[in-house]
Design goal:
Helix content is 32%, strand content 25%. The chain is of the alpha+beta class. The termini are far apart. The strands form two sheets. It has a six-stranded antiparallel sheet with strand order 1-5-6-3-2-4. It has a four-stranded antiparallel sheet with strand order 7-8-9-10, with no helix packed on it.
């Protein structure tokens, strides 16, 4: 006959059971109202499409800003539009857009810090400046719009694996309440991206209203997944990809014919036909500058009826870093 449990043993078992119940995680309630219009496989395809957008948009920013830029997809989620609205700061930098010949509308949300950094870099600044107010002025909007138009073009090229969609900018808004693209209770597709310039990172969000997404979803298939990212990028690291794009970046080259010094009085009296005497001689070599830095010596000449310069030697200097 088996022995019964003592009173102390029963108490120990009861305490152990209570600890196990407390250690269990709280169950997460499932919201059956959320319409999951997009399957997991379709989300993977959409992620790959926008990873391709990041590649092309990143290389464009590298050539435009003349600095190291990395763009990547951070998240692809389905959420309520009301949840997205709550998360958008005020003031914001929002561009509403639509996919032409469809009922699909969207919002491109740029971080205000990213937008202002873009403006500063494009106007020749260092990108480290600060602005007291985060409101985007009309002049800044025009400068940023050129970048947004290029991003819309990158979206069009990436989505061509699905269908030939045109992404058209509608308007700029600084308040999310005036950029409503669907009802608060509807689900939206939110693509989260991150742009890294030097050591600073900025978020970018693309929000699609999914109430009219059925025609697009019917064209998404797993077979198209392999054709989204270019095959030439397979196995290539981000550093190698950026280096490849940097090697194709166009740099301004100028040839310095000579220098001279004149007084302000002489400058005021200069007229058409006057001759300035340069300090350089006819047989001296000219300085060839790349991005305003001395890189080479050369001699002037003519090639195929065009003025040209022949590089004679390279200038060795520790400051010759682009």
């Amino acid at each position: 006959m088996s022995e019964g449990l003592s009173e102390k043993e029963v108490e120990r078992l009861m305490k152990k059971t209570e600890k196990d119940l407390k250690a269990e995680k709280e169950p997460i309630p499932y919201d059956f109202r959320l319409p999951n219009r997009i399957s997991k496989n379709q989300l993977k395809i959409l992620r790959s499409i926008h990873e391709s957008v990041c590649d092309t948009f990143g290389s464009f920013l590298v050539s435009k800003l003349q600095t190291m830029v990395n763009v990547k997809v951070t998240s692809v989620d389905q959420i309520y539009y009301s949840e997205y609205v709550i998360a958008v700061p005020n003031p914001a930098c929002l561009y509403t857009f639509e996919m032409k010949d469809t009922d699909i509308k969207g919002i491109l949300e740029l971080s205000t810090d990213f937008a202002l950094t873009l403006v500063e870099l494009l106007l020749g600044g260092s990108g480290n400046g600060t602005k007291e107010t985060k409101v985007i002025t009309p002049i800044e909007q025009k400068i940023i719009e050129n970048i947004v138009v290029h991003l819309m073009d990158d979206l069009k090229k990436a989505w061509q694996t699905v269908d030939d969609f045109d992404f058209v900018i509608d308007r700029f808004e600084s308040d999310i309440d005036f950029a409503q693209i669907t009802s608060q209770s509807e689900a939206v597709l939110l693509i989260g991206m991150e742009v890294t310039i030097a050591e600073r990172s900025y978020p970018i969000n693309i929000c699609f209203a999914t109430y009219a997404f059925d025609t697009v979803l019917s064209k998404l298939s797993v077979q198209k997944l392999s054709s989204i990212r270019p095959a030439k990028y397979n196995g290539v690291t981000s550093r190698e990809l950026l280096t490849l794009h940097l090697q194709e970046t166009l740099l301004p080259v100028t040839v310095e014919l000579g220098k001279s010094r004149i007084t302000v009085n002489e400058l005021m009296r200069l007229q058409k036909g006057d001759v300035l005497k340069l300090q350089t001689k006819i047989d001296d070599e000219q300085i060839v500058r790349v991005v305003d830095k001395k890189f080479f010596y050369g001699r002037l000449g003519i090639l195929n009826n065009h003025k040209a310069v022949k590089i004679t030697k390279k200038i060795v200097s520790n400051n010759n870093n682009l």
